[in-house]
Structures are given as C-alpha cells and as structure tokens.
C-alpha cells in the first residue's frame, strides 16, 4: 500500500508542478523549485543521517535513505505555490501563507507517520517539522522574491 501512496504522491507532485507553469513564468517556477530542493535535500540528509527519523518504505532504497518524493518533488512544488500565491503580499501575508502551507504539510506528515510506514519518528517531533519547514519555506520565498526582483 505504501508504494501506491508514494506513486500517487509523485503523480500529484508532477501534476501540480505542470499546473504551476500556467500562472507563473518558468523562471519563477524553477527558481523557487530548485532553491527549495537544494535546501531541503541538505536538511533532509542531516536529519535522516543523524537517525532522528527514518523512511522505512521509500523509492530507491538502495541509493538513498531520504524521502526522494518529498525532498525533491512535493516540498519544492509547495514552495512554488507559496511564491505564486504570495507574490503580491506584504510581510504579514507572506508569513501567514508560509505558516498555512507548513501547517498543512505537517498535518499530512503526522497522518503518514501514524498510519503508514512511510515515515517513522525516532527522536524527531512534529514541532521540529513545522519549525524547520516554516524557516526553509520562508527563506526560499524571500530569496526567490529578492532574486527575481533584482533581475527584472
């Protein structure tokens, strides 16, 4: 069942990425996407490498201990949508949207941790997920906004 969930999540992520090109320029999409993928892959390596959490069922288990679908597709796609929905927002709106998206991702993570073998907390807590994803999401949103603004 877990592998079916992973493939469904991959299909949703690819679909949402494709859809994002309908309302954002390729430059906006790829900058937000790649910034997030880079940062989340580094933080994911540290957290899973330290044994704080594990992904018992994952794609490419012979090659990585990380959640490839989350760190390289789903979370970066969420950053694209955070950027897209907060382009015309002030700081308060950006913070609130980052918190809302992060809260939704944390809720899904909690459900997956409790009801599947896709993620397993060892010394990790859901609060750590919320704070770390909020910080990364906000940082990516600010960096993407600044880079795109400075470069026209």
From TrEMBL:
Keywords: Membrane, Transmembrane, Transmembrane helix. InterPro entries: CBO0543-like (IPR048147). The chain crosses the membrane at residues 6-25, 37-57, 69-86, 124-144. Signal peptide: none annotated. This is CBO0543 family protein. It comes from the Bacteria. It comes from Geobacillus proteiniphilus.
